[in-house]
Amino acid sequence: MRASHEHHWTRLKAATRAAVGQAGTAEQLSQFTRVSEGQVNKYVGPNYPDYMPIDVVLDTELAAGAPIITQALASIQGYRLVPIDGAVEAPIGVRDTVKLLEGLMTVVSAIHAAIADETVDEGEKREIERKLNSHMMDVQDVLSRVRRVEG
Question: Which one of 41, 67, 85, 88 has the lowest number of neighbouring Cβ atoms within 10 Å?
């Protein structure tokens, strides 16, 4: 029996999507990692069981400017990453605002679709949980960067 569970895997997929999004596109990422665009799309796709190899995680996080996937792994295990003094963290910006709004709208849409018939079935519940988990990872990422902003 595996020690990790589906909700852990969902968080890893969400963190991978966030890291790839912050690094650019799957096509751009394939140019500075050892994997193809198609493989990157499998890593971010919720319906694929594929996860990034550790060296690709490193390349992706370097391109993203933040340890997004590593942070998710630490968080799942009850740890928090702390930057080394003098390390430069990726700044927050308009892209974060758009990402948070889009994520929130996917959650609202899933809830709205689920309650349209005034009941929530098991599939709808899982979909809402998946959307919420993904959105919470994005919120955690922005929150951690906001907390590090000096000034």
Answer: 85
**125 CB neighbour count, 10 Å cutoff:** 12
Residues 6+ apart with CB under 8 A from 51: 9, 12, 13, 16, 43
pLDDT digits (tens, 9 = 90+) for 94-116: 678 888 999 999 999 999 999 99
Residue 141 tokens read as 């990422």
- Mean pLDDT for the stretch of residues 116-140: 91
**3-state SS, residue 84:** coil
Give the pLDDT confidence of 14-27 residue by residue, as tens digits: 999 999 988 888 89
Q: What is the pTM of this model?
A: 0.59
Residue 141 and residue 51: Cα distance in Å, rounded?
A: 19
32-43 pLDDT, tens digit per residue, is: 899 999 999 999
Map residue 30 onto helix, strand or coil.
Answer: helix
Cβ–Cβ under 8 Å, residues 96 and 72: no
- Tokens 């990872």 correspond to 137
CB count within 10 Å of CB 47 equals 6
Rounded (5°) CA angle 7-57-82: 80
